[in-house]
Design brief:
With about 55 residues, the protein is mainly α. It has one domain (about 1-55). It has helices spanning about 1-20, 20-55. Helix 1 (about 1-20) packs antiparallel against helix 2 (about 20-55). The chain is rod-shaped, with a radius of gyration of 17 Å. One of its GO terms (cellular component) is plasma membrane. It comes from Sphingomonas suaedae. Keywords: Cell membrane, Membrane, Transmembrane, Transmembrane helix.
Length: about 55
């Protein structure tokens, strides 16, 4: 997921440099959404990992 966010961010930067503002904005929005989804999933897994680790050991 972070790889896809990084790819969309690169696409947005390239399109922004080439002057495609509308498409670059959409690609940047997608990159931000994917980044925050990946961040939320990582936080959930971290919390679950800490709680399950305490229960298992």
């Amino acid at each position: 997921m972070l790889r896809a966010a990084f790819i969309f961010a690169i696409i947005a930067l390239v399109l922004g440099l080439l002057g495609f503002g509308g498409i670059a904005g959409v690609a940047w929005d997608i990159a931000k959404i994917l980044f925050f989804i990946a961040l939320a999933i990582a936080a959930v897994f971290l919390i679950l990992g800490v709680t399950i680790y305490k229960k298992v050991t």
